[in-house]
């Protein structure tokens, strides 16, 4: 990401510190207000990014949609979701630095706004969160979480599952003719591809080249498997000839020399 390094050198001092923490805190407050104070989701509905409403003057929707919390009455589910989003976001902030994470986040946010206006589709911040999750799975593939608090599973497998769901939704939308929603489902791919597309291509190319070289090497140099494990240095008897024969290796002989029971004590030591 040389372009991003150049951007950081020029504008690196301009970023929102602890961006993910701030987003999570606002989302948590909105959840409490929505379900414990107001008791309905009408307030949340006024925060969703709806292009038509924005054109009518409700410009706050261009920002507020990123703070919409999970709309479920399960408090445990919300806590776990917000915590995991925080974990993924903060991990990326520490790995990339806060400026680069800001770029990744706001790139996804701007892409969401553009696609929403193109397709005239209402959206929230789900796709931005998903793009952060995919980036986390890419950078920390061996990180393990407990699925349902019981099953340990690595992030790379959850990443594969998320990709499968995205692709399935896109294909389903294309088949049913909902091309606008297909674009919406593709949103998580935009900033991910910008950040990781080139590295993914290089890794795929390197892996393919390595596999081809390995196959060529194996064909050129076939390993000959011996039909036995031990062979007496004196008489040539092997464990394949006599499975009951015990073989020993002489510590006084130079090198790795095996002897059968008859010759282990009756041989001249090899110097």
Automatic annotation (TrEMBL):
This is Membrane protein. It comes from the Bacteria. One of its GO terms (cellular component) is membrane. The chain crosses the membrane at residues 20-39, 59-87, 99-118, 130-150, 157-175, 181-197. Its main location: membrane. It is a multi-pass membrane protein. Its EC number is 3.4.21.105. The keyword Hydrolase applies. GO terms for biological process: proteolysis. It is found in: Membrane. One of its GO terms (molecular function) is peptidase activity. SUPFAM superfamilies: Rhomboid-like (SSF144091). Keywords: Hydrolase, Membrane, Protease, Transmembrane, Transmembrane helix.
């Amino acid at each position: 990401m040389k372009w991003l390094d150049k951007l950081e050198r020029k504008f690196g001092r301009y970023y929102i510190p602890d961006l993910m923490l701030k987003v999570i805190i606002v989302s948590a407050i909105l959840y409490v207000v929505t379900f414990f104070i107001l008791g309905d989701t009408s307030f949340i509905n006024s925060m969703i990014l709806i292009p038509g409403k924005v054109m009518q003057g409700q410009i706050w929707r261009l920002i507020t949609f990123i703070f919409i919390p999970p709309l479920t009455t399960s408090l445990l589910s919300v806590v776990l979701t917000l915590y995991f989003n925080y974990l993924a976001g903060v991990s990326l902030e520490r790995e990339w630095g806060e400026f680069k994470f800001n770029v990744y986040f706001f790139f996804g946010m701007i892409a969401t706004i553009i696609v929403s206006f193109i397709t005239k589709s209402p959206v929230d911040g789900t796709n931005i969160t998903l793009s952060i999750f995919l980036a986390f799975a890419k950078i920390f593939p061996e990180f393990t979480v407990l699925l349902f608090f019981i099953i340990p599973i690595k992030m790379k497998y959850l990443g594969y599952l998320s990709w499968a769901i995205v692709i399935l939704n896109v294909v389903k939308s294309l088949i049913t003719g909902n091309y606008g929603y297909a674009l919406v489902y593709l949103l998580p791919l935009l900033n991910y591809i910008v950040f990781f597309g080139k590295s993914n291509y290089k890794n795929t190319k390197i892996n393919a080249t390595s596999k081809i070289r390995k196959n060529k090497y194996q064909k050129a140099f076939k390993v000959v498997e011996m039909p036995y494990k031990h062979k007496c240095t004196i008489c040539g008897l092997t464990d394949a000839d006599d499975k009951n024969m015990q073989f020993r290796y002489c510590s006084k002989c130079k090198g790795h020399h095996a002897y059968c029971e008859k010759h282990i004590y009756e041989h001249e030591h090899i110097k």
